[in-house]
Write a structure and sequence with these properties.
The structure is a single chain. The longest helix has 19 residues, at about 1-20. Strands 3-2-1-4-5-7-6 form a seven-stranded mixed β-sheet, covered by helices on one side. It starts with a helix and ends in an 8-residue tail after the last strand. α2 (about 35-45) packs across α3 (about 60-70). About 35% of the residues lie in helices and about 20% in strands. The radius of gyration is 16 Å and the shape is globular. The protein has a single domain (about 1-180), classed as Vaccinia Virus protein VP39 (Rossmann fold, 3-Layer(aba) Sandwich), CATH 3.40.50. The chain is α/β, with parallel strands linked by helices. Bound molecules: S-adenosylmethionine (SAM). S-adenosylmethionine (SAM) binds near residues 62 and 122.
Length: about 190
């Protein structure tokens, strides 16, 4: 199932990438695989007191995992009200409702200025449009984008996530993570 989702998004990327920076193609719900979620949170170097925003939060997995594993506050924003309801239900089931908030909103209209970590699994056009807000985040804030980077903004570093050792067959593709640290110059690549 998961592979089929990834194939669908890969196909839409191939077809839509030339247009993606110009048009606002609908961004589908494709959950990040859990091993990618774990790595996204690790590379974000989460510390006590961080506030994480996941833009396009789907079933809430990134925000919920951050609350469970690191005990930090998080906000998930998604256009799809049904997914927001599902994320709230998942948070309640995982016992982290007191740490997280899910809102049905267009991510581009949201004030993200309190965020110290922002995660993205969104098309480039969305990431590009969010960039002015990302660049205004406090010094030291981290942005982790899954598979889609940001035009003309060199990441602090890039990482290819290995498939999980116990389940390599279901993860033929290796997610790429783009990481920016506000105020830090990218390493030479
Ligand atoms: C590829 S999924 C990523 C889900 C989750 N972040 C993850 O990594 O598992 C993208 C999500 O963005 C939502 N979305 C699309 N356009 C949006 C927008 N303008 N503002 C907020 N959410 C949006 C979709 O409904 C979908 O749930």
């Amino acid at each position: 199932m998961h592979t089929r989702f990834r194939a669908a998004i890969a196909l839409s990327v191939l077809i839509l990438t030339p247009l993606a920076a110009r048009s606002q193609d609908t961004i589908p719900y494709v959950p990040s695989p859990m091993h990618a979620v774990h790595r996204m949170l690790e590379v974000a170097e989460i510390q006590k007191g961080d506030i994480l925003y996941d833009m396009g939060s789907g079933d809430g997995r990134i925000v919920i995992e951050a609350a469970k594993k690191y005990g930090i506050r998080g906000v998930g924003i998604d256009l799809n009200a049904e997914l927001v309801a599902k994320a709230r239900e998942n948070a309640a089931n995982e016992g982290v409702s007191h740490l997280v908030e899910f809102r049905a909103q267009d991510g581009l209209t949201v004030d993200i200025s309190e965020a110290t970590v922002v995660t993205l699994y969104m098309f480039k056009w969305f990431n590009n449009a969010l960039r002015p807000k990302l660049q205004k985040l406090k010094t030291g804030s981290r942005i982790v984008a899954h598979d889609f980077d940001i035009d003309d903004w060199k990441p602090t570093r890039v990482e290819h996530v290995s498939p999980p050792k116990d389940d390599p067959a279901d993860y033929a593709e290796s997610p790429t993570l783009y990481i920016w640290k506000i105020g830090e110059t990218p390493a030479a690549q």
